[in-house]
């Protein structure tokens, strides 16, 4: 189900909105940028509407603080 959701979002947000792509040479870099955005910049509801990068940075900062307080 999750893969179908991501696939649907990809088609809706990139392929159908930005068409026509003349060939795969045009679609490839656009896909790379979209996947990069999806994995790192998109706001995730399950993360409290935060970006994954922000959550990861916060996590490691908390880990360091726990080590320091020991």
What does this structure look like?
By secondary structure, this protein is an all-alpha fold. The chain has helices spanning 2-18, 24-40, 52-69. The mean pLDDT is 84.
Number of helices: 3
Q: How would you describe the shape?
A: elongated
- Determine Rg (CA atoms, Å): 17 Å
Secondary-structure element pattern, one letter each: HHH
Helix content: over 70%
Strand content: under 5%
Instruction: Characterize the main sheet.
Output: none
The end-to-end distance, rounded to whole angstroms, is: 42 Å
Instruction: Provide the low-confidence segments as ranges.
Output: none
Quick overview:
The chain is mostly helical. The chain contains three helices and no strands.
Features:
mainly alpha; 3 helices; 74% helix; 70 residues
List the helices and strands and how they pair.
Blueprint: H1 2-18, H2 24-40, H3 52-69
